[in-house]
Amino acid sequence: MTDRISATHPLLISARRGSECESLGGADNAARWTPPAYLLERSPSWWAYAHPISVRVFEREWLINAILFGNYDRLRRATLEALGPDYSGRTLQVACAYGGFTPELAQRVGAAGGSLDVIDALPAQIDNVRRKAAEHPCVRATLMDSAALDFRERAFDRVVMFMLLHEQPEEWRRRTIAEAARVLKLGGRLVATDYARPDWRHPLRYLLPPALALLEPFALALLRRPIESFFAGAPLRFAAPHRTFFGRLYQLVVLEKI
Ligand SMILES: C[S@@+](CC[C@H](N)C(=O)[O-])C[C@H]1O[C@@H](n2cnc3c(N)ncnc32)[C@H](O)[C@@H]1O
Predict the structure, then answer these.
(1) Domain segments of the chain: what residues?
(2) Nearest to residue 19, comparing CAs of 62, 56, 73?
(3) DSSP label at residue 4
(4) For position 214, what pLDDT does the model report?
(5) Backbone angles phi, psi at 243, to 5 degrees
(6) Which neighbouring-strand residues pair with 19?
(7) Which of 96, 149, 166, 252 to mutate to test the pocket of ligand 1 (most atoms within 8 A of CB)?
(8) How far is residue 107's CA from residue 67's CA, in Å, rounded to a whole number?
């Protein structure tokens, strides 16, 4: 991947400010880390994830619930249920998410004696998830690009992407799915929850696209194309019926590594 932001880019410097990751060494050193350029330059909503102050503002369950039109709890529960019931072994959460998703997943993984790796490309998100999961020793949070995972092949029993794919441009989405498939064990499960094209009677079918075009332009692809098309070519097969929520505005897919 060459499309990376310069380490001295002003947006990245402001995004790093206040990050506790800077005190860490090795690959996790936020001072040397350069996230994919699209996150800070091409995504109009970058500020919602990148800056420590935004993290403090957005880390509120009611706010995330409002952004998801009251569906946060439902989507979180459905995603966690689709990942389980066995949470032993190694679980990977690709990209952080606001709210109680990670603590709840950590609780389930910890109770089963497993381990949970959470990766994200932004230092402020990694700091935040470390804070949220501080009481769960089974959690390890690492700065990483989902399109170039620093894990060996077939390392994980399950992988989850909660509302991630709509944040990514086409090429990154394709690489992210390929990487998730690579690090999954044979028979391992990949669960992805994201936007979909709402039913024709749904008012948001007409209102959402212009809003997304403004705030999250990469999300439009999830409304225009069936999610299967993004997984084509990856060694994955659908392992459960495709589920939709809230008049099909959201979808959940469960795939298995073959
Ligand atoms: C998973 S979505 C969060 C969705 C939802 N709004 C929520 O909070 O529940 C956003 C996260 O994806 C991360 N992200 C986007 N592209 C990434 C990439 N290439 N590698 C790792 N993390 C990425 C962002 O840094 C951000 O923390």
Answers:
(1) 69-257
(2) 56
(3) B
(4) 86
(5) -110, 145
(6) none
(7) 96
(8) 25
